[in-house]
Design a protein that fits this description.
Blueprint (H helix, E strand, L loop, with lengths): L1 H17 L4 H8 L3 H8 L7 H7 L4 H14 L4
Length: about 80
């Protein structure tokens, strides 16, 4: 499931770069264990519920960018 590694990396960049958020902060905000977040970001977890958590973080503009960027990557407009 190579696509999960890609999705996880996309989420990791969003968390670390766009949101400037550590794994610990992400864990505290979402109630997801840091090891679980790390596993998702490295493609070892296929739980897409975590993707939804990422899409709900940040301000309105950041969330919009997150979803628009992912849509473009998938080949959407």
């Amino acid at each position: 499931m190579e696509y999960m590694r890609f999705i996880g990396e996309y989420c990791r960049v969003y968390r670390a770069i766009t949101l400037n958020m550590t794994l610990k902060t992400m864990s505290e905000l979402t109630d997801i264990n840091m090891k679980t977040i790390s596993a998702f970001e490295n493609g070892r977890s296929t739980n897409m519920e975590h993707f939804i958590q990422y899409s709900q973080l940040g301000n309105d503009n950041q969330r919009k960018q997150f979803l628009e960027g992912f849509n473009k990557i998938l080949g959407g407009n």
